[in-house]
Amino acid sequence: MVAKILLAEDEEVLRMLVMDTLEDEGYEIDEACDGQEAIELIKENDYDLILLDYMMPIYTGLEVIQQVRNIPAKKHVKIMMLSAKSQQTDQQRVLEAGADYFLAKPYSPLELVKRVEEILHGEN
């Protein structure tokens, strides 16, 4: 079965790069360009993994995590935050909010694919 991933990223060029990279690996990707669109898609669909940018319009990645973790049917979906805000305090805040993983920007497409595969196949 193909894993379904939601990518919420407001920078279009980065969103397209990540989508192309993950689609080339065979994943089914939905995209959101802001936090509100991400929440709407999460409520309507089942995802194996949610990739969130930290700084997005309307709702930040942190606010999206908090809302997702308050939806009983979505509580256990894996969430990875992608962020240039990579200081230890930022990472701690993200993990305390309910993210499972944190990947600091900039990251290579290969690093992203490796992390996604580890998460989806339980190697992490």
TrEMBL record:
Key words, A-Z: Phosphoprotein
Residues forming coiled coils: none
SMART domains xref list: REC
Domain Response regulatory: 4-120
Presence of the UniProt keyword Phosphoprotein in the record: yes
Pfam families: Response_reg
GO biological process: phosphorelay signal transduction system
4-aspartylphosphate: modified positions: D53
Record carries keyword Phosphoprotein: yes
Top-level taxon of the source organism: Bacteria
InterPro entries recorded: Bact_response_regulator, CheY-like_superfamily, Sig_transdc_resp-reg_receiver
Protein name in the entry: Response regulator
